[in-house]
Fold this sequence. Notes:
The protein is mainly beta. It is 3% helix and 50% strand.
Amino acid sequence: QVQLVESGGGLVQAGGSLRLSCAASGRTFSMSAMGWFRQGPGKEREFVAAINYRGGSTVYADSVKGRFTISRDNAKNTVNLQMNSLKPEDTAVYYCAAGRLITTAQGMAIKENYDYWGQGTQVTVSS
């Protein structure tokens, strides 16, 4: 089992920045990829960004490319999401996820491929 705990959400004005962190514990050696997803009011949960836990390759949704950066610290078992130039449409609950058997970039963007999920952290961007 892997436990994931997100932190760093909050309220920010449009154009501002936030940094989300996800701390993993448990059988972290079994993870192949970690990702961030988000779910806005009345919307489906959607992919935001992901990182291969060993090699460090990254994948981003088109809507956040150039504004968000995902990074990992394997020594601390954390994955971070730096969010810049935030827009009101970025408002959502952000979830951290970890997958055991994800081996492709395309696979990292599919929420059904993830085995473990955090509780989520609210990000609200005001206009």
